Amino acid sequence: MSNDPPGFELPLRLFLGFRVLIDELHAELARQGHPHARPMHGFVMQAIGIEGTTAVELGRTLGVSKQAAGKTIETLERLGYVERARDPRDTRRKIVRLTPSGVDVLVRSARIFDELRARWAAVIGDERLRELETDLRKVTPPDVFRLDVPGWFGA
Amino acid sequence: MSNDPPGFELPLRLFLGFRVLIDELHAELARQGHPHARPMHGFVMQAIGIEGTTAVELGRTLGVSKQAAGKTIETLERLGYVERARDPRDTRRKIVRLTPSGVDVLVRSARIFDELRARWAAVIGDERLRELETDLRKVTPPDVFRLDVPGWFGA
DNA sequence: CTAAGATAGACAACGTCGTTGTCGTTAATA
DNA sequence: TATTAACGACAACGACGTTGTCTATCTTAG
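YS: structure for the whole thing
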């Protein structure tokens, strides 16, 4: 079709859509008492999960070195979102667990994302939004955690 | 609706869609003789444009400091994608211009993006893809250049 | 049971890429 | 003509990733 938009618009719109949602999420999180939460933190805490994990395991999940995962954990610890404790059954391991504050971020994020999704539905229509999600699922990989965001874009 | 997906899936799908397109672009660019092109470079070269620009101007366009823009320009210069020359009418300024190799990257990128878009159209349907783009335009800002990708996601 | 190997995490050194601050040169302006 | 503003270069610093090394601990082969 000659009236199709140029192909480079599609990736930009996808990224901008992502960026808009994440920015609005964090603006709202800041209003709700979590001004220090950064985009990365939500993903990392989701990867940590309710059961907890270790630095090595987290690194594998996120696709970064254990040292990088360790540094991220330190940051989250300083913010009070996670805490570390020795594993009694393997004293080498240190289990990283979400604090109530960390869980609170995840709970609020889930609710905010639902609200943002509803706002999009109000703009483009409920059916169209469902179609958009269905279509995106067809062209994206099923595994959702290996974002590899850090450094991937860099020069 | 109770059978709506959780709201957090939407941003992930948007980002994964972006990532898939960019990754495939650069795999193809590498095959076509540009193995060193990185995701950022395309955006930066697009921002430089055919007419050329300066470090200060580029920094403003991209939303980074002039020093950061200068370093990116150095990298592109080392890769042979841009070259610098003094502006005869203002000897303070150094005009950054795309080399034929840099233009080649942009031309090939445009063609590859069109092909990738066609591939998506084959998967989800031509009409649905147009709707997807239309819908995304409604929920994203019109200005497309201030991606602010570097550092934005960071901890 | 013990010795060898593997694994968890801490620490250090380094590279990249962004930032701010400073400075000399050159334009624009009062 | 003197002051102010802008461009680009250089240096120092911080954030965040990497690899390498080290100790402590667990696992496993002999």
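YS: worth flagging: Chain B has a mean pLDDT of 92.
IM: good catch. Also The longest helix of chain B spans residues 100-124.
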